[in-house]
């Protein structure tokens, strides 16, 4: 930038500069810090930053084997203690700054029964950056848990996986919650190998404040859909779930369409279970563990695909960076969170997480400072 243009840019009023910068994605916004000290300070200042694009500030993850806390984690101190601090609260999903929680009320036990009665539960959506939260009305199908086999012994329809759909660029006040309605089939009962066959999707809209059940029989897929994963990704008005057979199921938030896209050819299928799907820089990234290594495939809205070998199989993919070519891994043997740079093809350690649970997803968190979110 020549001196004349630089001088003109630095002399703009702060309000106008913030209005311009608020339209930029994260990477160009970072480069704008080099324009001048005034722009650097403006981008870094807490008040204007509420209107600017944000990037990943950290991860939410579950601790393995630790006793339940006496109160809600300090990150959720704004939740009413009478409702949420007395029982288990599971963090299910993170989407563009909002979090989806499953809140289980205290279970009751009977003197005539050795097992406690199922605890009533509900969903809540919250914004840790502003302290706002809303409780979602009770769905038609009761909320389940993360696939514990005891929840499925009756072979009844249950819910296990739920995800959040929210895009502040489309609407800062509307969101959707989708939960998969499944039936558990034991392929090998003696080995306790479960097959969670998806039979319907139940969708909640904050605009209508109601749930709608979309049965798979209406979409006439012609085959069974099984999903043992615990993670979904929202992109382009649809939630995308990694299935067990090397495919991705995409369900739009209106429940009008369901599409299954095969990412891994049938001849390359393995028994590794569901892959991992994430969103980065406007694309969906899919990784799947084979016999020896992980393979990355990404496809745009046109479903252009390519694959490439990445890293050894004993690493678990837990997240992708939304604004860079970085995949986050978890080494269960060392209890280490790591980052894989796809451009340099290098892996580096980030932080030891010895008590992290591999049975729950790692959820990248991008702060959302908009006061409009959850205000509708």
Automatic annotation (TrEMBL):
**Boundaries of every F-box domain copy:** 6-52
List the CDD domains: F-box_AtFBW1-like (cd22157)
What Pfam family is a match, any one?
Answer: F-box
Q: Which SMART domains match?
A: FBOX
Q: Which InterPro entries match?
A: At3g26010-like, F-box-like_dom_sf, F-box_dom
Q: Which PANTHER family match?
A: F-BOX DOMAIN CONTAINING PROTEIN EXPRESSED, F-BOX PROTEIN INTERACTION DOMAIN PROTEIN-RELATED
This one is known as F-box domain-containing protein
């Amino acid at each position: 930038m020549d001196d004349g243009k630089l001088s003109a840019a630095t002399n703009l009023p702060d309000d106008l500069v913030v209005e311009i910068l608020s339209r930029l994605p994260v990477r160009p916004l970072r480069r704008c810090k080099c324009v001048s000290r005034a722009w650097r300070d403006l981008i870094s200042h807490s008040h204007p930053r509420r209107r600017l694009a944000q990037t990943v500030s950290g991860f939410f993850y579950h601790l393995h084997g630790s006793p339940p806390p006496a109160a809600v984690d300090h990150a959720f101190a704004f939740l009413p203690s009478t409702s949420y601090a007395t029982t288990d609260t599971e963090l299910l999903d993170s989407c563009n700054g909002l979090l989806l929680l499953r809140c289980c009320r205290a279970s009751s036990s009977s003197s005539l029964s050795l097992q406690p009665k199922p605890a009533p539960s509900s969903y809540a959506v919250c914004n840790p950056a502003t302290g706002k939260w809303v409780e979602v009305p009770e769905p038609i199908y009761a909320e389940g848990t993360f696939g514990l086999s005891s929840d499925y012994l009756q072979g009844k329809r249950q819910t296990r996986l739920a995800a959040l759909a929210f895009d502040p660029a489309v609407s800062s006040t509307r969101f959707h919650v989708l939960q998969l309605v499944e039936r558990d089939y034991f392929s090998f009962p003696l080995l306790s190998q479960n097959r969670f066959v998806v039979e319907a999707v139940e969708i909640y809209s904050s605009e209508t404040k109601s749930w709608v059940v979309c049965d798979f029989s209406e979409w006439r897929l012609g085959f069974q859909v099984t999903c043992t994963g615990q993670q979904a990704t929202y992109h382009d008005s649809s939630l995308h779930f990694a299935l067990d057979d090397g495919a991705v199921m995409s369900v739009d938030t209106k429940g009008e369409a369901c599409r299954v896209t095969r990412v891994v050819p049938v001849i390359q299928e393995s028994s590794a279970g569901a892959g991992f799907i994430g969103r980065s820089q406007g694309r969906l990234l899919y990784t799947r563990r084979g016999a020896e290594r992980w393979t990355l495939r990404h496809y745009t809205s046109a479903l252009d695909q390519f694959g490439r070998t990445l890293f050894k199989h004993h690493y678990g993919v837990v997240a992708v960076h939304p604004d860079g070519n970085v995949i986050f891994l978890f080494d269960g043997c060392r209890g280490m969170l790591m980052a894989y740079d796809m451009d340099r093809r290098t892996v580096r350690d980030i932080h030891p997480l010895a008590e992290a649970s591999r049975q729950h997803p790692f959820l990248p968190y991008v702060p959302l400072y908009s006061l409009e979110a959850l205000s509708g």
